[in-house]
Amino acid sequence: MWLYLVAFVGLYYLLRWYREKQVVSHLQDKYVFITGCDSGFGNLLARQLDARGLRVLAACLTEKGAEQLRGQTSDRLETVTLDVTKMESITAATQWVKEHVGDRGLWGLVNNAGIIKPVTLCEWLNTEDSMNILKVNLIGVIQVTLSMLPLVRRARGRIVNVSSILGRVAFFAGVYCISKYGVEAFSDILRRELQHFGVKISIVEPGYFRTGMTNLTQSLEEMKQRWKEAPKHIKETYGQQYFDAFYNIIKKGLLGCSTNLNLVTDCMEHALTSVYPRTRYSAGWDAKFFFIPVSYLPTSLADYILTRSWPKPAQAV
């Protein structure tokens, strides 16, 4: 009985491997638009796809980032500046893309731009911080996607939305988690709405990786600043000892981030180039072997595992 089960599982994964190895034809004629290419995943993906021969349209927040990227890639890659929080910038970028792709349409849209800082408890955030995170990570994704959607539909192409493992397991950085849960929901809805148009939607859920978004020095300094600015009653509720312990937990987590960004960009590339892309990609060993299993546990057990090392607030009951 067990032998048959093992054989069945082995055959299933063999067939899946073979199916996913099939590559889309004429990649050199396909355009891919990527947001957040100044650094991190977006920058690496732009270079990776350019090296493979695709026509990359890379959106950077700054002209400096765009110039540096152009210096690292072929003449095929072209750049545009884009602020995903401003509709006029999105509209201008969409027109720019339309002029480049023409009647062929846009094969790939990768919504990669994102922010996480400051990394604090929800009560320590101010309204401006919360709104900035939501504007970039969720509202920006929605607005860019809906603006580019006619071009993607024309090509019967792909949309790749970068979520996070924190979009599956809300663990810390509360508003960031909210934004990524929103990306997951938007992607699921979009996939079902567009199923009859030949457009495929993939979600990439990275674990902890070391990028500009998780810069150690900046993250810790911003955390200190938010604690310094917190109202007196918040400081009394949690206490300095709690902050110091939480600070060290976050520092340890940031130091442990993976530096192998290819684990993420390879997922993105597969979603864009495979005939049969996956709906979800979990990128990183922590995502695959810790957070995904934890997400299936009973809530009370998951809560214990995720928070057992957290300190107690000064005014805890």
TrEMBL record:
<dbReference type="InterPro" id="IPR020904">
    <property type="entry name" value="Sc_DH/Rdtase_CS"/>
</dbReference>
<dbReference type="GO" id="GO:0047044">
    <property type="term" value="F:androstan-3-alpha,17-beta-diol dehydrogenase (NAD+) activity"/>
</dbReference>
<comment type="similarity">
    <text>Belongs to the short-chain dehydrogenases/reductases (SDR) family.</text>
</comment>
<keyword id="KW-0560">Oxidoreductase</keyword>
<dbReference type="GO" id="GO:0004303">
    <property type="term" value="F:estradiol 17-beta-dehydrogenase [NAD(P)+] activity"/>
</dbReference>
<dbReference type="Pfam" id="PF00106">
    <property type="entry name" value="adh_short"/>
</dbReference>
<protein>
    <submittedName>
        <fullName>Hydroxysteroid 17-beta dehydrogenase 6</fullName>
    </submittedName>
</protein>
<dbReference type="GO" id="GO:0047023">
    <property type="term" value="F:androsterone dehydrogenase [NAD(P)+] activity"/>
</dbReference>
<dbReference type="GO" id="GO:0047035">
    <property type="term" value="F:testosterone dehydrogenase (NAD+) activity"/>
</dbReference>
<dbReference type="InterPro" id="IPR002347">
    <property type="entry name" value="SDR_fam"/>
</dbReference>
<dbReference type="GO" id="GO:0062175">
    <property type="term" value="P:brexanolone catabolic process"/>
</dbReference>
<dbReference type="InterPro" id="IPR036291">
    <property type="entry name" value="NAD(P)-bd_dom_sf"/>
</dbReference>
<dbReference type="GO" id="GO:0004745">
    <property type="term" value="F:all-trans-retinol dehydrogenase (NAD+) activity"/>
</dbReference>
<dbReference type="GO" id="GO:0047045">
    <property type="term" value="F:testosterone dehydrogenase (NADP+) activity"/>
</dbReference>
<dbReference type="GO" id="GO:0047024">
    <property type="term" value="F:5-alpha-androstane-3-beta,17-beta-diol dehydrogenase (NADP+) activity"/>
</dbReference>
